[in-house]
Known about the structure:
single chain; about 30% helix
Amino acid sequence: MRTEQIEAVRAACIKATPEIVELKFGCDIRFALTDGGGSLATVLFSYDGDYVTASYAKFHENKAGTVSRHLNKIEIIGRPIRLADVLLAMGKPVKYMTPSGLIGTIHKDVVRVISLWNLRTDGLEQQSDQTIAFISSLLTV
């Protein structure tokens, strides 16, 4: 259930901010190695269409090193989903008026999302089950 909710939130965030899955500094990629195995790494420098070049690529198998390989297949996973992505995906804000007469706009659930979000670890996948479930209920109809 949690995985499906994370994927639903991620899809809504990507729809609102397509640059999340652009191949650029800090995004995750998956690529096939010549031996047929796959590896997951974080891009730290560049991709020119054929080669990924990164010094100190962060391999998610707890390895580190320099990567420069010809790639036949590359899957761009993108960067982690953050609070800003969720807020952008929430859509159009509503108008409000304070008791003192100030007028502004805010999405009606933004305060709840911010209050639930663990700001010490900004990634979506590090948030509590309660936070993910609430955000998923907002972004998926």
